[in-house]
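Q: Here's a chain of 639 amino acids. Please give me its 3D structure as tokens.
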Amino acid sequence: MKVIVDCDTGNDDAWAIISLLRSEKMLRSYEVIALTCVHGNTSVENSALNNLLVLETLDRLDIPVFKGAETGFIKNKISIVPFHGLDGFGMIYDKKPSKELIQKKHAVLAIKDLIDEHSDDVTIITLGPLTNIALLFKMFPGISSKIKSFYLMGGNHLGIGNITKCAEFNFWNDPEAAQIFFEEVKCSVYIFPLEPCVTAGLSLPLNEWRFKVLSSNNNPYTNLLDRVEAKAYGSRNWDIWTPWDNFLVSCFILPRLMKKVTNKFVTVELSGNHTRGQMIIDHQKKEKPNAFIIEEIDVEEFKKFMLWVCEHDVPDFNIKILKMKVIIDCDSGNDDAWAIITLLRAEQKFNFKVLALTCVDGNTTIDHSAVNNLLILKTLDRLDVPVYKGADSSFIKKHTQHESFHGPDGFGMIYNNKPSDELIQKKHAVLAIKEFIDQNPNDLSIIAIGPLTNIALLFKLYPETASMIKGLHIMGGNHKGVGNITKCAEFNFWSDPEAAHIVLAEANCPIYIFPWDPSRLASESTPFDEWRIMKLSNNNNPYTNLLDPIEIKAYRNILAHWCPCDCYLASCFILPRLIKKMNNCHVTVELSGYHTRGQMIIDHQKKEKPNAFVIEEIDVEEFKKFMLWVCEHPDSDFE
């Protein structure tokens, strides 16, 4: 993932940049590709010079710095004494890096070029007024659908202000920009407002913790900011430390810091005498949510993180421990098996943890699916992963039956000796998913590679879970009207169209769909005999040994190309760089058509707000390299 930081650099922005760059190397899950400057705490020129000073301290002057908007859409009539001093750094440093190091291109144009270069893989973290982003949206309509997500520091969710009685500084500085942003954004948005900053600050005493603890080891970061912050806080007689922007960035780096997140509709007041710039929340829930609001963080964990950032020895904190949690919801036939094998082989290398396999009716019955999962786990020596049985039929019983491509038991009736079903958990899969979500709010992704019945039941039983999931990754549907079970429908969506409709309508989290069409396209470069059997299986590995007899029976004399649909999705989850083309659009499902029931419907006219990222093409050669690595092949050159 690529990250752009849009900032108005005072001391709290500096802390955010330091935290991001200190964590970047350790986590290896993102890359900061630019710092863009906007008016706010200080002028854009001062902000750019402050950024260069921060980068010089970190030995990271390789990161480009761009200057952007110098004023808001409407110039504020009220002048203020900047908290951070006229230059944003308390006028402490006379000598800063040369402004010749600042890039000539305007920040808004730089952001546009970087989004085009890294489409759908750019997250923008905004730490100042939203002027640059609003200008981006106005100059390049529709560009927000090419952005992965936004993280914003700004606004207020309880009506408490810090620059006026009712408004927070960043939103107050350019309310029109904030309004444009919320009207036009078409990707995930996370907001860290004023109130949780103040609450967190109450547990961060300025002298006793910020200066006496955080600065006690003579590290370069507090050495840079000690005098800046002593002057800023001392001039206001504050006795708590509130690094506003760094709270947001820390939540981006460490999602486990977030203790309470709500999903609400957000806009901004433009006209009020007292309330101009106030963030307006739809507490009545009449409008569809457009942002996740972080309302509370784990301050003790934040302290440990900051000690780590400042190179203290923190025995009970290890940033590398961070693992995203994953549940695989499946109807295990052979392509599900490949997805599960791939995910569990990649688990440690790519820093995520599979919490459970949940079974749904689809390729085979839930009883067969669960036992097939146990066989896969046994092959991987991973019977520690629990298996749960879920929905044993769709919302509305299918009127037509079909002969399963995978055989009656999902595994071609090849194996008579499978693990005992006593190893299957007793709890229903939907209840298990709910408990895992409660234990890992906003830090759990679901990879759904069967019909969506379990997920739809979850949303209907527990509506709040629809906004507590980090990401929902779905194999299913079709974006060109080409079916594989009927003329117009793909198998998973056709198996339970009502469930797919519910999930797409009610999910309030990022959705990524790998439909049937790119599966067919990718398979054309993967001949079954020549590559799948003669190449992937020629090193006597346990995974192909398990699946060879199943797939030979399913494919040979029927299909010439290997098409592990579910594995394509799982591989894109693990390796986003595999995605060559992805479209952010509004998606639903046809429920009534005689020929088209179960077809995925795309709003190509772009009249409705996008609700899903649809993957349209992958890098097949890179996928092949990855699969050779999965199968421990000596010819693998995957890195």
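Q: Can you summarize the key feature?
A: The longest strand covers residues 352-359.
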